[in-house]
Amino acid sequence: MAHARGTRRAPALMAAAVLANLGAAGVLWHAATMPIDTSPRTGDASVIAPTPPPSPPRVRNVPELASLGETLARPLFQSTRRPPQPRVETPPTEVKPLQTEAAPADEPPPAVAQAEASAASPPPPLPEGLRLVGVAGSGRTPTRALLRLGDSARGVWYAEGEMLQGWRVAQIGPGEVWLEASGHRQQLTVRTSTSAQ
Question: How many separate domains does the chain show?
Fold first, then answer.
């Protein structure tokens, strides 16, 4: 019984679908063949005004590379966009001959007194979170170490002899840096481990 009712409805649904498609096709045909009104509207001056002719294409004036001296003098990867300052080489100091006069018996020699003073004074604490990020250098430039302090996302390049919060960068080697303060030495390696000597 249900099968017979379904077979009677199928032709009616098919006819309704065909009629719907024919109606949609008629609407599309009417829209496609309808003339388009291109006459200007009255009262609208912007439509009536003639359009100006297109302007000729602009010719870009590209400067010569030699005229970009200021641009070339500012390094792209420096945060200040200023060239690094040339390193001032200090002339070697003149070596004076050693005077051989005897020190009084109750005073220790100056080298021993300095060593005792440095052993008595503790070094300043290392900056919190100080770590070695990398080491760079070539035959033409001095070796420098990239050190990062604490939670800072940016590191600072240091060369041998420069000071860092009371510590002097004594030696830079492959993957390591030695810091000195008050006669004490501290080593930093790229693996961020520290060991005192």
Answer: 1
